[in-house]
Structure to design on (93 residues):
């Protein structure tokens, strides 16, 4: 009985660790986009200003022009990714 509970606890801990690693990676990638966009330098690393800008974007996406803005931003972002000379990370990680 104790072995089964210990095995279950190890499995639960492993699932939690995997989920945490995936979330951490996702947050790091999002932070990388903030840096890549130049916002950190333009706002002089003012986190309140950056957060305010993100809130403004969120308000825009909550409005009536959501679809148009997403389309515009997606196109601009796609073009920028294609034009970016930075090498892409290896898929072997």
């Amino acid at each position: 009985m104790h072995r089964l509970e210990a095995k279950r606890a190890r499995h639960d801990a492993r699932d939690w660790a995997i989920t945490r690693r995936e979330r951490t990676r996702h947050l790091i990638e999002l932070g990388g986009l903030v840096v890549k966009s130049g916002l950190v330098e333009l706002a002089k690393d003012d986190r309140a200003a950056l957060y305010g800008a993100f809130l403004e974007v969120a308000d825009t996406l909550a409005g009536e022009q959501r679809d148009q803005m997403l389309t515009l931003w997606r196109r601009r972002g796609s073009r920028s990714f294609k034009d970016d000379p930075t090498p892409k990370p290896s898929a072997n990680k």
Remarks:
- The two ends are 38 Å apart (CA to CA).
- The chain has two domains: 1-36, 45-83.
- The chain has a mean pLDDT of 89.
- DSSP finds four helices and no strands in the chain.
